[in-house]
Amino acid sequence: MSRGWRSPIRRSSRGCCRRRGGPGSRPGDGGVRHPSRHPGLDPGPTFFFLADVERTPAVYIVTNTLHGTLYTGVTSNLPGRIYQHRNGSFRGFTAEHGCKRLVWFEVHHSMEEAIVREKRIKRWLRDWKYALIEAENPSWRDLAEDFGFEPLLRTPGAEKR
């Protein structure tokens, strides 16, 4: 391969593989085409928006109550992972402690960046994690509701310390 050769597939700023031009591109999208999409089976722009949201690497913190037990995790599908936490699909720390309330998350361009950030946050002191959450979510509101999840019932001990 010569040094000047460039692949027709390139990575967008969101990390998804995209291809310029071609028969599958839609008018007004700048010639951007998803390489795995069949041109005759175009589901429309909404489908790809949701697919991008669901496949974005993110670091997140879930808790059981206000100032309660915290769990820091990383995923490439935040809505799917929150669904798993809420339904108890995993045995382990979050199921044992009832951590179901999403109180903080941060989106990253690559999974490698997200993993590094998660490992750093896991080493933080508890008070630092509280400060991180309260900087963007001072009321510790369940952010999963923004993804369309039902509100969780209030738990005892949820009053502020």
TrEMBL record:
Residues 8-21 have a biased composition (Basic residues). Signal peptide: none annotated. Residues 1-40 are annotated as: Disordered. PROSITE patterns: GIY_YIG (PS50164). SUPFAM superfamilies: GIY-YIG endonuclease. Residues 55-132 form the GIY-YIG domain. InterPro entries: GIY-YIG_endonuc, GIY-YIG_endonuc_sf, UPF0213_domain. Belongs to the UPF0213 family. This is GIY-YIG domain-containing protein. The lineage of its organism: Bacteria, Pseudomonadati, Pseudomonadota, Alphaproteobacteria, Sphingomonadales.
